[in-house]
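Structure record:
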Amino acid sequence: MSSKGGGTALTRRNYRLASDTDKPKATGIVNEKLLSDYLHHVFPSTKQGPALASLRKPLGFQELGAHLERLLSEGEPTEDTRDQLIEGRLGPQTVVLDHTSGFEGLLFVDDDLLGVIGHSNFSSIRATTCVYKGKWAYEVLISSQGLMQIGWCTLNCRFNQEEGVGDTPDSYAYDGNRVRKWNVTTTNYGKSWAAGDIVSCLIDLDEGTITFCLNGQSLGTAFTNIKMGPGIAYFPAISLSFKESVAFNFGSRPLRYLFSYLPLQNPPTADLLKAQKLLGYIKTVLSTSIDTQEERLVEKDCASWRLHGEPTVLITLAHIFNHFAPLMCKVYLVEDVLMSFLLGILEGGGSVDEHPLIQQLLDLFWLLMEDYEVNECLKQLMMSLLRAYRFSPIIPDLGFQIHYLRLTTAILRHEKSRKYLLSNKFTFDVLRSVVFFYIKTPLRVKEAGLEELIPTTWWPTRFDKEGKDERDPKDETADERLRRRAYERGCQRLKKRIEVVEELQVQILRLLLNNKDKGTGEASRYIFLNKFRKFLQENASNRGQHPTALCPPEYMVCFLHRLITAVRTYWDDGKRKSPGSVNSEEAYVPPQLFYNGKVDYFDLQRLGGLLSHLKKTLKDDLASKANIIIDPAEIQATSMDDLDEDEESGAAQRPFGAAAMGGALARPSWLSSPTLGRANRFLSTAAVSLMTPRRPLAPPEKVKVRTLAVEQRTEEDIEGSHGNDGLLLGRPLEEPDQPIAEKSLLEIVDGIVMMYNLSVHQQLGKMVVVSDDVHEYAVALKDTEEKIARCPARRPDILEELQKSQKVFAEKLNHLSRRLAWINATIYSKVIYNLVLESQPMLDVYWLLRVCIRTIEHADNTGSLFAFAPEFYLNVAMNAYSALKNYFSPANSMEELPGYEETLTQLAAILAKHFADPRIVGTDIKDSLMQALASYVCYPQSLRAVERIPEEQRVAMMRNLLAPYEQRPWAQTNWILVRLWRGCGFGYRYTRLPHLLKTKPEDANLPSLQKPCPSLLLQRHMAELLSMDKDMAASFLNSVLNQLNWAFSEFIGMIQEIQQAAERPERNFVDTRQLKVCATCFDLSVSLLRVLEMTVTLVPEIFLDWSRPSAELLLRRLAQLLNQVLNRVTAERNLFDRVVNLRLPGLESVDHYPILVAVTGILVRILVDGERQGISRAASVLLSDPFVGPLGPTVAASIPSAPGTMAPADRKHFSLHAYTDYISEEEERKVERMLAFLTEESKQAAASTPTSEEDLCPICYAHSISAIFKPCSHKSCKACINQHLMNNKDCFFCKATITGVEDYSKPAGS
């Protein structure tokens, strides 16, 4: 490696360090005296005092090697000293986790044997080294905050899947999840830990005590009088549950927090001393210049040092690096010496650009160190920075985080270093570097200094009767206003400090996305892009297989926001340079990316199904529309590759589970080694070629396109060149021929959309929990204060308990409001955007929504090729809208977003068109579209957006909604129609059911709890369609009546079972799932009745105009179902009454009001509001139904005939007069008219001559025989045979196929 003596040459980099006699003076080497003075200044001897400086020997480059060796050997510890340092410890010098015999359960262990993830119920593992005397310490870096027990154990401890460290007599543990200490028994101890904390485990075997510290703060002595003596030695140990992860530091790196305890692993004292000496020599070189004119040495500020190629300086540094470079390959020295030195350079403040010394030093590293040495040094330096950033404690000014991010930025500004770190497989992949873009939320407000930063807390104090926060500033008291404003000022102070961190994070991403640094090879952006795609693949492919390999969603949220900011900056820079391209506000992903095979979508689902299937079925469309030809032989090869890959994946995973049982260890951790996932193969294309459109008559000319693995792609494969469109190969004719942006940015935007779909949306929902907690505690505090005000003076005991509760709620609110301030500052904070205050993260999600909308619109224009689009674009469009509506309020409002109404209308058009799009085949995505549309029509603003889409699309949407309910998920369709009607029906203007108002308020954001907002426009479209298309109207209503019959019958059957279970003498419980299904059937029955009411109101002729083919049949079926409902719900002491009076949890929605009011609405419409002929027909059919019984009395039992009529005292009837807030006076009058009319009609029907039994229909025995079947001549009434023929063509009696039905009238002489 190097010359140890005073030779004249060094083998490192073949530098030839020649003597003065070998080299002419013109080379730049200074004269001997000045050189000697310079070298003595840089390398002063510790044995020579200042008085002897004039007597020292001349020093030249020939003697420098031996002189430097002598200096470095001074102060090295002797062998005896080394032996003394390890007294009291047994085991190897290098301390790691014992993966061969010291574990129980299944664990994933890092390749450095210091990190571990639990992969079974409760796994345990210990270290390889134990201690029996002295004071020792080690640190545990908490990566997840779940159930773990960390501490010490002896070799005698035997663990299993239920008992771990602390559960046996000779083991002691601290559990920060449950905040307890364990040694067979357990007691409260310490504080709760969080991901990013550091636990220090200290054992004093002189005093017999064990202590734990959290982030450097002692939690107190946990255990005293621990067992000691001959044969007793303690190992570091941990037990952890499934998916929990930690990393140990036994001393291989400097311990973060220093105590008067020794690390288990000895620090490299000799190497540390050498490194510090050599670094001192380097600092002297940097701060000393040689004035050759005056032949003297000049002191200067080392910050201004530049690498100018001066031979004297370079040869001097080469001698230093001869010893310094090998030391910089050791992680301990890199973290303790080099990182501290580089951080010290930046301590002066100012921008990173103002400290060019770091760039100069990195140039020096690459010049004077071997490639493998500088590579290892950079790798260890970056990993040390990553750990330091992640595990730094939160302080108010975020000083630690800013410090480490500034150094990371400075290093990444160096082009050669940046490209090495990006291209290195294990160092700076996206999976690790994403840690740099996260700002962790403090769980312990006091330690984070938020009490000083936000001294005044505030929370909402005014709520309406449903528990919603009423935010009217005019109603605030002066004290409330002062508190709110002080709280907002504290939030602003916090936000300004967080913005510094966010800006540094964006700077890092801008460096990684640089595409102009092509001087030393491929530009950084293309290296990053391939790593980014690999990161997405690992997170998409491992979601169900290895959850431990996933990037934590809270990290993904911050990464997404920073990446959007950086990408949009580069996008707009490109727009300024190329005015014809698209602005980032109008960004979208062109549809070519979905089918030309240039971008890997792994095994993610496409809208049209599997990719291999789409290639086979749509190959002609690809050729005609996109000029892309796929070789059939390659399609078959792709299918075979899929099979091979599944086998490889299985083979890779089989040894994976046994990782901790010896052999090669690998943990699929996002913070360590890469995962063993699916093989990184490009599945999205086979052979793709371009057909020249200018010569349509000639056979297509095939131009083979390389199919490359993601990491092998180059700039040319992405951006294209010389007629090669790169990522945009195969532009369809519908796509405009104009530049959009740099093609690499398009793929990154596509990845951002995928990333949001993977986990960001779910995480945004979790962040709202703190806000919900504040609301719940605020309601509880207000309720407690009201009780204190009402508490009688004679009950001081109750008053004392209430005051205790008040204090607890207030303390919790103070804590939560400060935590919420942190979340508001990082997620929901407001920034100036076009003179409007908006949340930057909210704007990011809104931008993502608009990107998805435009992408879907462009893909939709390609016709059948739309099937190639990945499903996640539709998912993100729906989820982003949901997030904007639910997750960012009340801090921000969607209405303030630029272009909000236009965006709502565009999304409405997508939902209206694609919820029944035959090109979409996935069941899950179709259900999601239907649910999104159902939610969309529940809110006034989004419903108005549906009304703003073009009329042709509105009519098509309504036609799809009115398709028959069989063979499709009809419940959501019916819900949509009900929402369009709610607010127009009889007594159908409520938000919550009347009997539920006194119960606990539900989530006010639920679609079902929104105020009625009917759409008269869409109702008109529905009426026109049903009126004009008689066949569609008949099939639609037949399916609605079938489903109503099924839903209500199921409901009655279930409440019979519930009633029987409730009446049994033995104690029993009804299954909650059964109760839920029962309530769902009831809700479906009510909603189907409302759709029937809507249809009867809008298009009464469907039932009452008997010139229409199915009108009479539909009316008879309607009457039959209405009579069944009334008989079941209103009979004396019926089953329905008994179950409703039980008030079982889960059946809250089951009550008389919703179902009886729906039935009454239908009856009023056909018996009161219609024309005379229709009313007569309806009354005749209703009263002739075999299930009717005495209809007038039945309805009268549920609806009083006159206002003020009271039932006898011993009976309680349901009465509309009890719901004056919900039933209008006009509606009451209509009911009274209907009852009077029905009573009169019933009397007349009773007085009429009864029909002979022989003349009645043998099927229903309700109507006279009126039809004869051909060819078998059997007879029935028209209603029975028409209903039967809608579903079956066989005769009731002989099963012969019916070819026709003729009218039948009884002969006169019979």
About this structure: DSSP finds 40 helices and 26 strands in the chain. The chain has a mean pLDDT of 80. The CA atoms of residues 575 and 583 lie 6 Å apart.
